[in-house]
Write a structure and sequence with these properties.
The structure is a single chain. The chain folds into three domains: 56 residues, no CATH class; 246 residues, Metallo-beta-lactamase, Chain A, CATH 3.60.15; 162 residues, Rossmann fold (3-Layer(aba) Sandwich). Helix content is 27%, strand content 24%. The protein has 13 helices and 28 strands. The strands form seven sheets. It has a seven-stranded mixed sheet with strand order 12-11-10-9-8-7-28. A seven-stranded mixed sheet has the order 13-14-15-16-17-26-27, with helices on one face. Strands 20-19-21-18-22-25 form a six-stranded parallel sheet, sandwiched between helices. Strand 13 and strand 14 form a beta hairpin. Helix 2 crosses helix 4 and helix 6 crosses helix 8. The longest helix has 21 residues. The relative contact order is 0.12.
Length: 505
């Protein structure tokens, strides 16, 4: 489902009014014409119009490159109206057979309903989950946009209460506003309005790890997920069964947080991003990274490190401070504000003092003059992590002319992103123009998602009879993971978006 964000009027035939997830058209003439041509984001499209009233469900047809269907709250949801007759029903609005875009509805025979996450897949163009049914409560596992990007729509349309950790709630404001800003710049549809952010911010209920709370007859408890600071797994104890949903998780310690520990459950919902792949030993990968940085600096170059703002920027700065303290390292982008939030919640960090020392050591870019000075640094760590915008493109545009410089990626580069294009073709679009970049380009694996073996070991330790594998590529990552989990003795489920499944108690 996609949402048309804005219209520009042609010929004064109709005017448009916008509500969250429901674009309506109102006639300003009595022409009695059934269809008009309108200008949308520089493209002419044919739009059905209801004269003298409101058109409740607008469908863009014909000449728009992607079919666009608007949510009409309560009308376009495919979720079943009635509770399951027995057992526990789960239904993926998104994230079932894809990475990101997560939204999971859980409901039992008593009608107790809960939503876990509601995000946007930050691809180009973005992908959106199916419309959520009415849910009064949603647990947000962590503050990445593919898990909370659609929460403002929930709160605006269903008055949904949001539950999560203190860091997740504090960072949500920044993530939503950045998402809105990017959507405006890139001119892609967004399902909610800027005003909905305030509604969502007022909807937070904060919970500490290990402290249960009641959701009707269910007991809910958050546990550390090890992914980024504040990331949580959700444990649900119903009268009939116990459930653990990992969200994005990692059992390995990182610089920022300790790894997730297993929690016994009958049913395990586990993210399988890295199914079929094991991470290289962390010490080996850090050594390879440090050696590569030293080599570039030794030849007089600057290393540009595009890094995700939330978690990766802080990890990389701590790594450089520990292993290469003599270097001149500059930090730019949204990661600076994220680090302040992390430092304000030291109890949720593995070693808050280490982050504090690293952050004082690195030079913070805060002005245009600082940015120019950073061009002479040994290392620049900045957003965005996939070279889709932010200061990273500004730096790359100026560093690309000197082959002594290098670009080092420390995170996943999605298809159709600037980072993936640079890795595969040696070129990238900068400010609307495709340019060749003849620099050393390397990719390092510092993922904070559990690898294949970590997932297997975790499922075994949880003693789960049923395992639901989600947040994974259904063609490559999921098959080997499903096979291995089955051989390990679990009953494995492979969900598809938009379909409902029942697990018997």
């Amino acid at each position: 489902m996609t949402y048309v964000r804005s219209f520009e009027k042609k010929m004064s035939v109709c005017s448009f009014e916008k509500n969250p997830l429901n674009m309506v058209a109102r006639s300003t003439s009595t022409l009695g014409v059934k269809t008009h041509e309108f200008y949308l984001d520089k493209i002419w499209i044919d739009v059905p119009v209801e004269i003298e009233g409101y058109h409740p469900h607008l469908l863009c047809t014909g000449r728009f490159p992607t079919a666009m269907v608007l949510y009409s709250p309560g009308r376009t949801s495919t979720y079943p109206d009635d509770p399951p007759a027995h057992g526990l029903r789960f239904h993926y609005l998104g994230g079932g057979d894809e990475v990101g875009n997560v939204g999971i509805v859980l409901e039992d025979a008593e009608g107790t309903r809960l939503l876990l996450d509601y995000g946007i897949a930050p691809t180009s163009p973005p992908r959106y989950p199916n419309e959520a049914p009415v849910v009064h409560d949603a647990v947000i596992t962590h503050s990445h946009i593919d898990h909370l990007g659609m929460a403002p729509w929930l709160c605006a349309n269903h008055r949904t209460r949001l539950h999560g950790t203190i860091i997740t709630s504090q960072l949500s404001d920044m993530m939503w506003r950045d998402c809105y800003k990017v959507s405006s710049i890139e001119r892609y549809p967004l399902a909610w309005d800027k005003r909905d952010i305030d509604t969502a911010l007022d909807s937070w209920y904060v919970h500490d790890f290990g402290v249960p709370w009641k959701h009707h007859a269910w007991d809910l408890t958050l546990h550390p997920a090890g992914h980024i600071p504040g990331a949580a797994m959700l444990h649900i104890q119903t009268p009939e069964t116990s459930v653990l949903l990992t969200g994005d998780f990692d059992t390995r310690d990182s610089s920022l947080v300790k790894g997730a520990e297993p929690v016994q459950a009958d049913i395990l919902f586990v993210e399988g991003t890295y199914g079929g792949r094991d991470h290289p030993p962390k010490a080996d990968e850090i050594g390879r990274f440090i050696d590569a940085v030293e080599n570039v600096v030794r030849r007089g170059g600057t290393v540009l490190i595009p890094a995700f703002a939330n978690g990766r920027t802080q990890d990389v700065v701590m790594m450089l401070h520990e292993h290469l303290p003599r270097l001149n390292v500059h930090v730019d982008g949204m990661g600076k504000r994220v680090a302040k939030t992390h430092l304000a919640n030291p109890e949720l960090l593995r070693d808050s003092k280490a982050l504090e020392r690293a952050w004082r050591w690195a030079k913070q870019v805060s002005s245009k003059s600082d940015r120019k000075k950073a061009l002479g640094a040994d290392v620049i760590v900045t957003t965005s992590g996939m070279l889709e915008g932010g200061p990273a493109l500004w730096y790359l545009n100026r560093l690309r002319h000197d082959q002594k410089n290098a670009v080092f990626f420390t995170g996943y580069q999605a298809r159709n992103t600037g980072g993936r294009g640079l890795l595969e073709t040696g070129s990238i679009v900068i400010y609307g123009q495709r340019v060749d970049v003849a620099l050393q380009t390397e990719q390092f694996s510092f993922s904070t998602h559990a690898g294949h073996q970590e997932i297997l070991d975790f499922a075994k330790a949880c003693q789960a009879k049923h395992v639901v594998v989600y947040h994974t590529d259904p063609n490559h990552a999921r098959p080997p993971l499903v096979e291995a989990l089955t051989e390990q003795g679990h009953v494995v489920h492979e969900p598809k978006n938009g379909e409902s499944y029942i697990i018997e108690n």
